[in-house]
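Board notes (copied after class):
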Amino acid sequence: MIIRHLFCQQAFGSVLDSAQTSQLPPSSYEVKIVESSELDYASHAYYSALLKLALSKTEDPIKPTYLVESSGNLVQERVLRQLNQEGGIDVFWTVTSKLREQQAIPVRVPLLNGIMGYRVSLIRQSTLREFNSVRSAPDLKRFIAGQGHDWPDFQILEHNGFTTLGTSNYDIIIELLKAGRIDYFPRAAHEAVVEAKSLNDPDIIIEPSVLLYYPSYMFFFVSQSKPELAQRIERGLNIARQDGSFAALFEKYISFKDIEKALKLSERTVLKLNNPHLSEATLEATASEAQQLEVVQ
């Protein structure tokens, strides 16, 4: 099974909603995060578990830490703005970019071990024959891609010359794909597997022959008013990487080897794209990930 526990909420400790905070002991430390949603396909379970793991590595036994879900589902840019509002969330997980690293404090430890940049596409079954002829970037540029307008991926595709339609949320992109307004929806490899299965639509399939690749990393982002929290999360993640608990949690939720085998990534036509939106600090911090996961030659 590729995504082993993606549809289970198995955090290392309690994740509470905002209505339950009155039950917390007075000495507790609250870390506010976004609430889970059907649209995240339960990836919230992995990221909240990883955050709790990182915090547990540096926890004060006298002042236990609790994750508290705030109410309301927002698009990514609005969530990032909430990070710096009084009473807003404290931590968010998202793909990094130079702009986002100016909006909040990035914790430069990749949460997905670098696999975010391996992109396969959801397409309509009826267009499969057309996509079978794609052998190069100019071939793919004849088609229209769909992405969230506030996703770094939208900017990356446009920078590399791909025609891309941006919209406000995931559901609209799927509807545009079904209606033929866009031709393909690039997703990270692990996302595509889960989403194609969850959509359960025989006309929406994973395109089998093309792999887009560009360096892309998921980070925790922390409110600019809480640098000590960012330092604590970074320290905890690095401890978890060193003691093996990070890798164990990642393997519990996601197996990249199984994904690679199921999608036959090594057999695909690889189109390498440039990502100009990574900061020098991020490139330096992720150099080892880029080498470790370079399966595209």
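Comment from the instructor: Residues 1-13 have pLDDT under 50 and may be disordered. DSSP finds 13 helices and 13 strands in the chain.
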